[in-house]
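Progress report, Aim 2. The chain analyzed during this reporting quarter is listed below.
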Amino acid sequence: MMQIRPPLFLLAALLLLLTNNATARGPTKDERRREAQKFANMRASGQDHVSMTKEAAELRSYELRKKKMKGLIQKREVSLAQVLFPGASPEEYMDGEPLPAFVDVVESRKTQLPFEYYDLPTCEEPNEAIQKRFRQRKNLGARLTGHGKMKMSPYTFPVKVDKECTPLCTVTVGGKNLKWLRKLVDRQYRINLTLDRLPVLMRSKELDYAVRSYPLGFKAAAATTGLKNDEYFFYNHLRFTVFYREEPAEFEGVRIVGFDVHPVSIDHHAGSQGVSYSDCSDEYPVNDPASYLELRSGPTGEDVKILYSYDVQWEKSDIPWADRWDVYLVGSPDDEVHYFAILNSLTIVMVLVGAVATILVRALKRDIAGYSDMQTAEEALEETGWKLVHGDVFRPPQNQQLLLCVVVGTGAQIASAIFLMLLASMLRMLNPIKKGQALTAVVMLYVLCGGIGGYVSARLFKYCDATSWKRTTIATAVAFPGTIVAMFTVLNIFLSLAGTAAAVSFLTIFAVFLLWGCVATPLVFVGSYFGYRAEKIEVPTKTNQIARVIPDLPYYSSLPTSMFIAALIPFGSISIELFFIMNAFWLHQLYYIMSFLMAVLIILVTTISMVSMVMCYLQLCAEDHRG
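Predicted structure tokens for the chain:
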């Protein structure tokens, strides 16, 4: 008998897998219990989560441990940099090297109208060119959302060079600009700065909080100022703290691991020479109610003079570069909330599956048994219930055939684009953290999926025996994109009149138009060509020549009640995850959990399928073959 020996490479692969499983085994239950007790004691002792100390970093890492798990089958803990920015590598800087900071749009959580930083009454933009290593290429999605171009800030950060109170410039504000600035402060607009692609943070060890960006100013109530009305104050001095890590044995230079700001409102007094300020002494300015800078004209209507200044401190830190993003996700919703949302959706799906199973097993079985027990031919001819409309249920619609074909084809195109985008994000082909990349992928995939929309629309059009196939194809290519472009253009006109940063340039709109006209539309025609050439969709029963009269319908089977009932259940299955998505859009947060979103999408499709089956059965039982 011939003995079969497994190949050596299979044995080696099996041995390697067993070794990896043995080495990748997580901590034991006792170790996890001791670790949990250790960090519980740290929290009880008042240890904060946001400072740059070793203890705070360990506490952050422990609380974010679930977000750092990577892998589908075998989970392993990695850094947040690997999760959020796969493939990103740190930058090293030499002592004294000028490190530019960039300003993004000025935005608020109370409104969706961002503004350009240099549209504010601030110092002029530096004229120096941006070095190639610091340039950030903007994609189509970023340009469509108003994040088209990063601009250099007026602040300079030579590596490891501390700066005391440094004057920048003096700006005079009055009239409409002063009223506009007070309105921006009242609406809590915030400025976004980045250094080494790290957003600036306002953090407080005492209050244990850390937030991105810093406000333009603040509004003080009359009770705290002693004035008759509420007053607005402006932050004109910024105290920067840059944290860096230095390991000569591992790399040359320094790596940026933290970027903090502490805004200060101070009524500077101009010096005798240029913009030097007499109160910019060796000490760092602090917030003092006696020296706040008021955004209010003088007693005789004089304009407000805003004297800008800043100081910089460099502090060494032991925080690794890979863990510098931990503080930005502290306090964000835990993954358990998403698990509960998916569990809630699965519960709804199981209830619907049970309802469908009940219909198929009990109701249909009872009806079929009743038809089989007919005693006479006359009884057999007296059909009841859903069987009465078997000759009309596959009757093509007589009205709005064009609308039906266009809507179904466009829906297939949109669904394909979203599914492919989520799949690419799960496979790490897209990085949703980068601004606009997900929107760019959706736009490009929608354009490339034009063939799917044309094919589905053409197949349904051929089944309906409709006429004017050219009109249907053109409507599929034009209807939805044309509506979106028209709405976008109208909104863009108003945004341009308001002078916001969200207004899109003409070149960007023209580029989108070229994608629509030169790529999407031809693909729709190609898909329609193959759809018309395909065989007509066949149905299992023959359609009667004369349509059956529809009796009076119960309330749950008539419009709009049936539409409301059918839409309520799918919405309930995704409402929790939809809350997180809309919250991320409105509050300018980061949504990166695409695996949860894919799971919710699959649950939504399943729920819609189950609801459609139930509603279809109810409509047929009511003898409504047009429902």
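The chain has a mean pLDDT of 79. The first helix runs from residue 8 to 23. These observations will guide the mutagenesis work planned for the next reporting period.
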